[in-house]
Structure formats: structure tokens, C-alpha cells
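Try this one yourself first.
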């Protein structure tokens, strides 16, 4: 089922997500709905807070990035078919040089900015069957994971840009809060609640 994506300004985007119980009867359904919602919006990642759930869960599928001809063959292969759900994740290490990449967010449509992140991460998480993993990722896969991980920590990519850039996008962010934005997918806006 395709869920509405919560727009910038909604308090759920600023909450730290709660751990998910292994026995949660709705877990598989939530994961499936999140993948459906992400694909419908042409995203490569989606975190539970973005669909109004304050949980430590996000999904990623970096396959669309694999079509970028500027990437090496190895990078394209790493991105192609990389599809996972991350449940109760913890990034245990970030290392390497910081590098910039132009990021966007389904909760903040029409806003893109360069964000600096470390190139390599080590992350512990559970998969959909509640098997525990500790994996190391780098490059664009690591970046997508870091972006979605920030969501479950109550952090948005706009928090990581300069104060000058924040001032320059202030009006766009206000418009998103008021629902004055044209997204190609279903959204829910904080200022439109109760209307």
C-alpha cells in the first residue's frame, strides 16, 4: 500500500525513532508498504518517520543510481540490485574523507543541496527476518544509508548545510510546511492537518 509521505515541518521528522520488537506483527507489512511508497515516489531510500512512524527502520534500493554513466563499472555493480530493510540499526563507525554529494529528500521536495559525509560506514542492523548483521559500506550506498539513518535520529539533510544556504531555502521550506508544493506523490503536510 502506498502511504503519504510526511512533509518538512512535521514533528515526527524530529523524533528519535523507537526500537522495533522482533514480535511486531505488522513489521513485514510496514516494510512492504515503505518499499511501495518509495518506488511510487522514485526514491532510493525511505525512513519510517517519513511515513509518520517514529520507528528505527528504513529501506533502501540504490538500483536507480547504477544507471549513472559517470560511475565506474564497479560502482554501478555495487549499486545495482542493492535492496535492503534496516531494522534497529546503529552506525558503529564512520571513516575516510568527507565528500560532497547533492542530496534531496522525499519529505523536502524541490530542495537539493551538497552535503558532506564520510565515505565509509560500519553498521549493525537486523533484516526483515530479524537476523543480525554487521556490514561495511562505502560510496553512494554508504551515503544513502547515512541519509536514511539520520531520519531515524531526527536529523534532516538540511541540518547539515551552511547557515547561508539555510537562509536561501527558508521560503521553500515554509512553502512545504504549508503544503504549497507540487510533488508527484501523495504527501501529508503539517499546516494542512485538521483542515
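Now uncover the answer:
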Amino acid at each position: 500500500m502506498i502511504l503519504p509521505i510526511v512533509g518538512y515541518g512535521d514533528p515526527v521528522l524530529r523524533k528519535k525513532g523507537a526500537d522495533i520488537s522482533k514480535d511486531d506483527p505488522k513489521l513485514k507489512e510496514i516494510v512492504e508498504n515503505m518499499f511501495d511508497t518509495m518506488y511510487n515516489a522514485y526514491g532510493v531510500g525511505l525512513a519510517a518517520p517519513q511515513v509518520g512512524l517514529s520507528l528505527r527502520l528504513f529501506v533502501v534500493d540504490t538500483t536507480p543510481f547504477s544507471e549513472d554513466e559517470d560511475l565506474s563499472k564497479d560502482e554501478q555493480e555495487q549499486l545495482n540490485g542493492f535492496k535492503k530493510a534496516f531494522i534497529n540499526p546503529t552506525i558503529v563507525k564512520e571513516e575516510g574523507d568527507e565528500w560532497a554529494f547533492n542530496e534531496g529528500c522525499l519529505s523536502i521536495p524541490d530542495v537539493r543541496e551538497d552535503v558532506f559525509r564520510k565515505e565509509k560506514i560500519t553498521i549493525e542492523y537486523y533484516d526483515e527476518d530479524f537476523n543480525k548483521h554487521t556490514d561495511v559500506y562505502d560510496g553512494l550506498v554508504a551515503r544513502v544509508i547515512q541519509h536514511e539513518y539520520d531520519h531515524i535520529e531526527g536529523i534532516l539533510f538540511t541540518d547539515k548545510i551552511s547557515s547561508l544556504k539555510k537562509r536561501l531555502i527558508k521560503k521553500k521550506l515554509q512553502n512545504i510546511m504549508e503544503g504549497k508544493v507540487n510533488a508527484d506523490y501523495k504527501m501529508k503536510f503539517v499546516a494542512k492537518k485538521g483542515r
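Discussion: DSSP finds four helices and seven strands in the chain. The helical segments are 27-40, 73-79, 139-152, 163-177.
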